[in-house]
Amino acid sequence: MTRQSLAYIFVLLLCAATGAPAGQVAGSAATGPPFYVLPLWLEYQSAGEETVTREVQELRRRLGPESPRVRLGFTTYVFLSMDDWNVDVSDRDALHRALEKNILDVDRAIDRARRHNIPLCLSFMSAIRERYDPVQKASELEDRRNMQWYADNSLAGGWWTHSRYARKQRRVQEAYFREIGRIVANRMAKYPDTLVAASGDGEVELAYDKSPIVNKAYTTDTMLLADYSPFAVAEFRDWLRGRGLYNAGGPFSGQGYENAARYAGDVSPAADTNRDGHTLNGDFGTSFTTWTLRFFDWSLEDDASRDPHAIPAAVAQRPGWDPFRSGPAGGFDPPRAWKQGDPWWEIWHRFRQVMLWRHNREVAEWVTTSRDARTKTVVPADRWYSDQIAGDYLFGGSPENPNLRFITSASAWWTGDVAPHGRLGITSFNVNLGGTVFRTLAAVAPQIGERDVEWGILEWHPSSPETKDLEVYRSEARLVELYRPALVVPIYWGDPHTRIQDSGFEVALRELVAAMSKGPIAPTIEPAPGRLNFGATSDGRVTPSQRVRIQVVGRGRTGWTATSSDPAVVMSRTSGAGSADIDVSVAADDLGAADRRVSITIAAPQSSTPRVEIPVLVRPINGTGAPPHGAIGVPADGATVTGAVEIAGWALDDIGVTKVEVGREPGPGDPPTASALIRLGEAARGARADVTRLFPDAPLLHLAAWYLRYDTTTLAGPEPRTCRLHVLVTDVEGHVTDLGVRRVTIPSR
Fold first, then answer.
1. CATH number for the 3-213+341-517 domain, one of 3.20.20.80, 3.40.50.2000, 3.40.50.10170, 3.30.565.10?
2. Helices 504-517 and 49-63 meet at what angle, rounded to 10?
3. What architecture is domain 629-746?
4. Could you tell me if 246 and 300 are in contact, meaning their C-beta atoms sit under 8 angstroms apart?
5. In this predicted model, what pLDDT tens digit does every residue of 427-450 receive, in sequence order?
6. Helices 504-517 and 470-483, axial angle in degrees (round to 10)
7. Is the pTM of this model over 0.85?
């Protein structure tokens, strides 16, 4: 993550609220490949030899000692510059000449690492995001559609489109990356213990310059998203339909939307030509009349090199040029604003992520399948990494509760999964704002563990700004130990703003090196909840099935089995690999009159917790069972409330509570109602530790707590008003208990 990107992070948050020489300790057959700790040192290429000698010694003194399992070295950037837009893509000599400066950077970096006996990672950064090289500039001058567009059809300067429909651009880009692949393959073959890894293309995402992330002139309502280049829009349409380059037999056949067959034969988004009951408009709530693009329509039949629909920069810069040159009024177009939950926005946002994933995967394929003619080798797939921002888990966000960086960038963690052509690489950067650390790795590492792919952290810092809380750094290091990436790249070595030396990060890294030198630890198995209770009446009513989450904490899809000590306790599945859910239920037949104390055993021999017991209590109940019971915790009786009032408490039953509803008695001004209560809503439910301690044998303890938030402003009038609130609890047998009344006063407006 560049320093500029780090600045963007802070703006976003403010807008949102001495060891053996390394060359002698390569991994053996007994230990397998070593774990690499390769800090990113920005001055690696420019520093003098005396400085490099000193810093290598400092690296080993501070983080070592090394071992056959762990090696220490450095990572350095290689900023790619593609210099000829009209290069003959079949002329390797021409490509080599165009990349000559970059090749010199690669060789200088390797020579320096060899002289100092350290392993090296090269992090390749092309100019496709935020900056220009000669190729990108020329591509924009020739046809501005090669760049990303914002939602208002303005140009995202410095941001190349990731659409595969930019056919000339993609052909040129592929040629340059393939030549880089041949160079890296040659150097890795010559110096396998020095050039141990390479990554690229660095931090691929969509433009965010017209959003609150970097520009305070915008709000979440007025921000302009990318990529609306006509190339990307046309590809989105064809991806949805399985047409164009996604057509059967085409270059991207089978890579489109999984439901593309629904729309492939439809003559328009409104027509169900294939009579399958689906139209694009019906499924996504759109109102298009034609598949023709609403703005700047073009065709794949156009010559990719001399495109009649090209928009040269000189044309777009003329006075009076219309950025919204219209096509048909009902023409196809993606949603132009973020609207979370809307099906049309969600499928567009998914496609935006798919574009990034395809770019990363294709770059990896180009690099690792291009054979060097001299060594007859390719870049090993286990030495090439993507370098992707886990945008969906930045700043405490998640795919369900996204942060702005994810909405604008579309950079989900899985877009870095380039298998089988390389390893998944992410950047993990935690931001410390006012003492709160917004963590990325804690959320994304379990996701990567579930996918069970080889991976690395290509830029890593547990807290910026620095914190004095050592546990912040140690908890991050434990995640690395548990989820086992093949390499980590702490940032930045020698930089005072993201300090490693003389910080908690240095302490945690030194402890991590020591721990990994002993070998990686096995995953753990953690079931939740940790106990289950069931009740069953003599007339056959029984507690509903309860779900146990088998969470594999750590790397790999660890195998497990589940067995019950009593046939009365039935499980939906009895084996698996990786994290999974088991639904546990009770067969109510012939339970007898005495309590049955049963155990479910989760066995995972390859885990560090090879055996876990979940106690299960099954309690037979004579008759139809008792009604539910519980209490209202808040609000207090007689309380004065303004705005939203929180209504919360707990409720349990001997068989099980099915729902908790909150209502109020009708009052002055309410319309006539046949019901004694006006329903305010059904409460959300969850666990509560104090209730679990008081009633350890009650069924459905993980749902004992209930909570509802109600907006009282709709009831406020010119005079104060008193409302009488009730909480109704229903159980499996149909009993209903009113937990009582709470009188609250709503002040006048």
1. 3.20.20.80
2. 70
3. Sandwich (2.60)
4. no
5. 998 988 888 888 999 999 999 998
6. 30
7. no
